[in-house]
Each structure stands twice: as structure tokens, then as C-alpha cells.
Amino acid sequence: MKELMGVINLDHELDQLNELTYFRCGAAVPFASRYRLIDFVLSNMMRAELESVGLFVRRKYRSLMDHLGDGKSWDMNRKHGGLFILPPDWNDPTDTSLGDLQHYHNNLDFFKRASAKYIVFSGSQHINTVDLQEVYQYHLEKGADVTLVYKKIEQLQPEHDPCLRLEVDEDRHVTEIHQEKDHPNVYLDIFIMEKKLFLEQVEYCIAHGESYFFRDAIQKNRHKFKIAAYEYTGYHAVINSLESYYKNSLNLLQQDNYFGLFKENPVQTKIKYEAPTRYLDSAEVSNSLVANGCIIAGTVENSVIFRGVQIRKGARIVNSVIMQKCVIEENAVIENVIMDKDVHLSKERILVGDSKRPFVIAKSSKI
């Protein structure tokens, strides 16, 4: 869609997943046995056929860059447009911009060179299957300056507490943006606005010493602009804490959640050519999500197993998330555990966490 370009802004997303974000930013955290959190927003943008996508990152982005490569997995390795990874590069000694406005100010050429007239902005913490083309058409029909995407949450959870909420009137216009914890209209960190208006507001915010675009250009000026609200009704999960990561990982073992995320909207990720998983005669696997390349000889129950994991005979994995290339030796027991990549657990070790606060093992540990 030549009328629309994308921006994925990771600058305001804190590394809140403890051991899982020691060596990577949150967007690069593995999820659902073979993906990274960044894959879901990129796949949404790929389906909308955006002209170009800019990814703004500030810290711990080596793992993310390795995963994304040239964007080929999302059909974004193009001669014109495509995926642009834009790390911080502050070379202008006269630059007075702050916060995420630094990214926008120091990459003005990215926006000006693009032929698109509108920009869709997104973070990576809200996993969803939003149809961005539909949001764009809704934005045009409403004649709005800005369109925000939200979901009405029937049962609020602790991970929703930090999220912004939207007050929406009967005409689907936003009347208030706040953080009242008991309000159900959760903002999904996705909005669309015209590129010309965006650039004008960037310049205005910098001139007035502001720091963050959404807060200072949109939230503070909600009465100045015509702000429309698009209600999304599909699958949604917020990953902004270790507890929310664990809970939403295991929630995918429920068919309704799994099909809601994957059935109608295939998610693209970095391609890795590995053999199918081998289940040996002693293997017992039930209600689990298992990626390819694994060798399983033990017992796996209600767990998410990533690529290339080896589970030896007699080992037992229950209610756990085991990431790439981990090795679980004979007769080891793991329950309510998140195990990061390349962990080696020796024979007969027992690791048990709490169902609401899992035990976490950092990347490349040997136990």
C-alpha cells in the first residue's frame, strides 16, 4: 500500500522481562515456540503491504538485528522501501531533541523520502492481528487527524495496569486518554496519522522542549485534534512482565487462543531449516506446543518447547517454556520454569517454580 508506511517504536518499551531481557530488548524475546515478539507486528504490517517500515531502537538490539536480517522473511528486502533498522545515531551537535523525538528528528530523511502520505505507528508489547488496511480505511472515513486502536477487555489483568485507556463517545471519537486501571478500553499502542501533520508536530514538540511524541503531541492535545477510535475485537495479549510472558505463553495451549492468533493470519519469522521433531519410544507428550528440530525421549506436559531442544529419557517437563537448543538430561524434573536459550540441565536436577511466579534460568546457563 503506497499510501501507508510503518514505524515500530521500541524506544519507550522498557526491558521488564528480567533474565529474558539481560541480553536482548523485549521485542527480540522468543515467543510461541518459534517466533519473536517483533514478528507479530511485522507480520501485521506485511499483510497491509506497507511501502516501508522504520524500526527505531536504542539499546540491546544486536539480537534483534540478527533475527531481522534484511527483512526477507517479511517480504521487506526490496529495492525501494522495505525494512529500515534505525539505531540511535546522534551526529548533529545542534540537536536539542529529547526522548523518542530524537529518533524522529535524526531520521527526517527516512520520512521525507517515502512517498506514503500516512504513517501507522506501533510498539511490540501488544500481540494482536489488527488489520491495518481496515484501520487505514476507517481513518479516512472518519476524516480524523489521528486514529487510535483499542480493545475492550472484559477481564482486566495485572499486565493491563500500565496500559493507557481511551474514553470513547458514541461517535467513536476519543474524549480522554488516561491510566485508570478499572477502565476496559485498553489502547494497543497503534495509531495512524498523516505524515505532514506528524512532521509538523515533531518540529513543534522539539521547539517547545518536549520529549515523547505520543504523550506530548497527541495525549496533551486531545482537544486540539479530531481523534478517532478503532475497536479491535480479535486475539490480544500484553507482554510487559515476566508473569504476563509466562501466562500468555501457556495460554496458547488453549485451542481458541492458538487459532485466534495463527489460523487466519499466518505469522512470518526468520526461516531456519531443521528436521522435524523426533519422538523416541519413551516420549510422552500431551497438550504442548513443540517446534521442529527437537529430540524428545522424556515426558512433556502443558509446555512450550522451542526449536532444537533435547529432552533425554526419564526427564519430565511440566507447565514450562523451554527455549532454543536447551538440553535436559536424564531424569531431570522441570515444573513452572522458563528456560532461556542454550541452557544445559544436568541429570536428576529438580527445578520447581510457582505457577504464578515461574523460576527463570538465564541464557547459556549450566546447572
Strand content: 25-35%
Q: Give the averaged pLDDT, no decimals.
A: 94
Can you count the helices?
A: 9
Radius of gyration: 22 Å
Structural class: alpha/beta
Q: Under the CATH scheme, which architecture of the largest domain would be assigned?
A: Alpha-Beta Complex
The N- to C-terminal Cα distance equals 50 Å
- Give the overall shape: globular
Helicity, as a percent range: 10-25%
CATH level 1 class label of the largest domain:
Alpha Beta
Total domains, how many? 2
Describe the sheet with the most strands.
7 strands, mixed
Unreliable residue stretches: none
Q: Give the spatial strand order of the biggest sheet.
A: 5-4-1-6-11-8-12
What's the β-strand tally? 28
CATH topology of the largest domain: Spore Coat Polysaccharide Biosynthesis Protein SpsA, Chain A
- What is the assigned CATH homologous superfamily of the largest domain? Spore Coat Polysaccharide Biosynthesis Protein SpsA, Chain A
Write the layout of secondary structure elements.
Layout: E1 4-9, E2 30-31, E3 35-36, H1 37-47, E4 52-56, H2 62-68, E5 82-86, H3 101-106, H4 108-113, E6 118-122, E7 126-128, H5 132-142, E8 146-152, E9 165-168, E10 174-178, E11 185-194, H6 195-207, H7 213-218, E12 227-231, E13 236-238, H8 242-251, H9 255-262, E14 278-279, E15 284-286, E16 289-290, E17 295-296, E18 299-301, E19 304-305, E20 310-311, E21 316-318, E22 321-322, E23 327-328, E24 333-335, E25 337-339, E26 344-345, E27 350-352, E28 359-361
Parallel strand pairs: 1-4, 1-6, 4-5, 8-12, 14-17, 15-18, 16-19, 17-20, 18-21, 19-22, 20-23, 21-24, 22-25, 23-26, 24-27, 25-28
Antiparallel strand pairs: 2-3, 6-11, 7-13, 8-11, 9-10
